[in-house]
Write a structure and sequence with these properties.
Layout lengths: L5 E4 L1 H14 L3 E5 L1 H6 L2 H7 L5 E4 L2 H9 L5 E4 L9 H6 L3 E4 L2 H6 L9 E6 L11 H13 L3 E7 L12 H11 L5 E3 L3 H6 L7 E2 L25 E13 L4 E2 L5 E2 L4 E6 L16 E4 L2 E6 L7 E4 L11 E5 L5 H7 L4 H7 L6 E3 L1
Parallel strand pairs: 1-18, 2-3, 2-9, 3-4, 4-5, 5-6, 6-7, 7-8
Antiparallel strand pairs: 1-10, 10-13, 10-17, 11-12, 13-16, 14-15, 14-17, 15-16
The chain binds pyridoxal-5'-phosphate.
């Protein structure tokens, strides 16, 4: 028997979450499948999301893989191309590119085909990560409009605070002002903006995390948003220890029993992608019952409190996150976000699609 850990990927939940986007917005959907579809598997996710009008990712090899698998939607490279060597492939596979810096415009001289590149011109409206500064934006746009390689231009920006109380107003106003003179398609919204600010929907929305069934907000659960978890990380108890008062458990003996207690050892550790920094008290389900982790997470194992679960024993099922335990709750307890946990799932965890 292999080790009992598995990640279940619920493809019907992925389809349902896409319908949540459909109901929320009439814009075209650019499904974000970067980072191996947030850890869910690139092609597997793309197939379930096939109804989306586009896919956004980072790696040109992944984009080519999608084309080779027969996907004919718009495929957008979110960081565009990196060197002139990328351009023949961009042309051959008809990949849309985010253009965010003057160096990329300079490289476009090497583009092999006239009027065939779909450019997504990015303005940095407050994030200050990728994109032309507002005072450089219209000059960049004029160059692209006249550029022989460019067929079509979409204007885009990305929000820094869509999931927080700061909101999108300042960035939205700046973007709208910059884009106002031009009749071009626009794209602004990530999951948080899509759910909270209909004024950002424009022509293309770019949902990521919500497709995978996690909430982008601290205050709203995925359930409240009508989202279904797609990934459920499951394992089993492989040993039970009886601790006496004062005995510690795991490396560093970080947790010490105050009274006699039963502890379950679960086949899941940081080498599977479970966060090592999850403290004592991080929620976990044993046979569907909520309990907590104890002490330090090891490479291959973690320990859970069975004090209130006398029936639990070797072989009992454990849910680390997913169905019955929203990943954002585990992330919150561990001081991180659901995105990081989902992406961190490692190669050695077998995937089972359900
Ligand atoms: C990752 C990403 C998204 C999706 O963000 P979510 O918060 O996962 O919805 C949208 N747009 C861009 C530019 C991104 O990099």
């Amino acid at each position: 028997m292999p080790r009992p850990i598995q990640a279940h990927i619920d493809l019907s939940a992925l389809e349902c979450n896409l319908q949540v986007v459909r109901r929320a917005s009439s814009a075209r959907i650019m499904a974000v499948i970067k980072a191996n579809a947030y850890g869910h598997g690139l092609l597997r996710a793309a197939e379930a999301l096939n109804e989306a009008e586009g896919f956004a990712l980072l790696d040109i090899r992944d984009a080519i893989c999608l084309r080779d698998a027969g996907f004919s939607q718009t495929i957008l490279l979110l960081e565009g191309f990196f060197t002139p060597d990328d351009l023949p492939l961009v042309a051959e596979y008809d990949l849309a590119c985010v253009i965010h810096t003057q160096q990329q415009i300079d490289m476009l001289e090497a583009y092999p085909k006239r009027r065939s590149l779909e450019a997504w011109l990015k303005v940095s409206s407050g994030m200050n990560r990728l994109g032309f500064a507002p005072d450089k934006f219209s000059a960049a746009l004029q160059i692209l409009k006249k550029h022989p390689a460019v067929r079509d231009i979409t204007l885009m920006t990305h929000f820094a605070h869509a999931d927080e109380s700061t909101g999108v107003a300042a960035q939205l106003n700046m973007f709208n002002e910059l884009a106002a003179p031009y009749r071009m398609a626009r794209s602004l919204a990530n999951s948080a903006a899509l759910l909270r600010y209909p004024a950002t929907h424009a022509d293309w929305v770019r949902p990521g995390i919500m497709l995978y069934g996690a909430s982008p907000f601290v205050e709203n659960s995925s359930q409240q948003l009508g989202l279904r978890p797609v990934m459920t990380l499951q394992s089993r108890i492989i040993a039970v220890q009886e601790l006496s008062p004062g005995e510690g458990i795991g490396y560093g003996g970080l947790f010490r029993a105050e009274s006699p207690m039963r502890v379950g050892v679960v086949a899941c550790g940081y080498a599977d992608g479970y966060p090592r920094h999850a403290p004592t008290g991080t929620p976990v389900l044993v046979e569907g019952q909520r309990t907590r982790t104890l002490g330090r997470i090891s490479m291959d194992m973690l320990t859970v409190d069975l004090s209130a679960l006398p029936a639990a024993d070797v072989g009992s099922s454990v849910t680390l996150w997913g169905e019955g335990l929203p990943v954002e709750q585990v992330a919150h307890a561990a001081g991180t976000i659901s995105y990081e946990l989902l992406c961190a799932l490692t190669e050695r965890v077998p995937i089972v699609t359900v």
